[in-house]
Amino acid sequence: MRQTILTGDRPTGPLHLGHYVGSLRQRVELQELHDQTVLVADLQGLTDNGHNPAKISENILNVVADYLAVGIDPAKTTLCLQSALPALSELTLYYLNLVTVSRLERNPTVKNEIAQKGFERSLPAGFLTYPVSQAADITAFSATLVPVGDDQLPMIEQTNEIVRAFNRIVGAPVLTECQALLGKVSRLPGIDGQAKMSKSLGNGITLGASADEVQAAVMKMYTDPNHLRVKDPGQVAGNVVFSYLDAFCADEARVSELKAHYQRGGLGDVVLKRLLNDELQTLLAPIRARRAAYLADKGELVRVLQQGTDRARVVTGELVARVRRALGLALLV
Question: In angstroms, what CA-CA distances link 51 with 26, 47, 48, 147?
Fold first, then answer.
């Protein structure tokens, strides 16, 4: 059965390998089986970049080029721009009345990101409420599946709370609940060993990184700090190189053998990093070339985004009209 899928990214910079593992390669497969929409979430990007909007606007086409370069087909997947869909902002306003500040503050994802960004009491109100914006995005397309990393599961939970609250209030199943769709590798650590690869932390490898940049990043990767000599036994747990080999090496048996060898000693970190570098260079070389070709014709990128946004505006407009009618706010519409 075909399902409706909504996914997307904030255009705060070019996409990286964490995005690729977490959802991009999954999206390429899903577009063959389901009705998929990919949202360039520029409004959400402003929630912690309101003081620097150029950071968002300048990266919108970079993100579109990344999507196309990895294999997202605009004939199969709707690519659209969040800020060009007025229904999303309207739904957000409605949903804000169904969520308390204390509930938003308890959201684990929001709490972790507030701590990571050091906001404390200087927290932008838009950032605190961005789970509500995500709920608007998801419900506007009546999405039934949402590809996410495991750190985003609280967002799905909060979306479904809003759906149930709204449907209960209006006495009808106007909104649709959704399910999270986790990939094989739901989260990729940063090259520095941090829990998550992040554009804001600068610990990632972008899809457009040059061959030299990829190699340099791999050679800086966190391994086992106690593995001082090749002959010493090494730890696999927490070793970023092995995390990446698990994610990108198709030969699982070979990776298992490397782990066993490393744990008993006799396998150096440099050897592992060279193997990983080869895997990443093979993956990224064609993506890098396609990305550069797309960025050479930005007019075509705008056309693709406009075409998808036009389709999405119809879908989201129909949903928000049903919401207005359910709330009794359709008198002059």
Answer: 33, 9, 8, 30
Residue 195 lies in a domain: no
SS3 36: strand
Model pLDDT for residues 150-197, shown as the tens digit of each residue: 788 999 999 999 999 999 999 999 999 999 998 766 578 889 887 677
Pair 7, 35: CB distance under 8 Å: no
- What residues make up the domain containing 255? 211-293
Please give the model's pTM, rounded to 2 decimal places. 0.90
Residue 179, helix vs strand vs coil: strand
How large is the angle between the packed helices 298-327 and 86-96, nearest 10 degrees?
40
pLDDT at residue 276 greater than cutoff 90: yes
Q: What is the pLDDT of residues 197-220, one digit of tens each?
A: 776 677 889 999 999 999 999 999
Q: What is the CATH number of the domain that holds 25?
A: 3.40.50.620
* DSSP secondary structure of 198-255: -TTTT-S-BTT--HHHHHHHHHT----TT--STTS----TT-HHHHHHHHH-S-HHHH
Q: Which two tokens stand for residue 297?
A: 């014709």
One domain, residues 143 and 257:
no
Note the pLDDT tens digit of each residue in 77-125: 999 999 999 999 999 999 999 999 999 888 888 777 777 777 777 788 8
**Per-residue DSSP letter, 142:** T
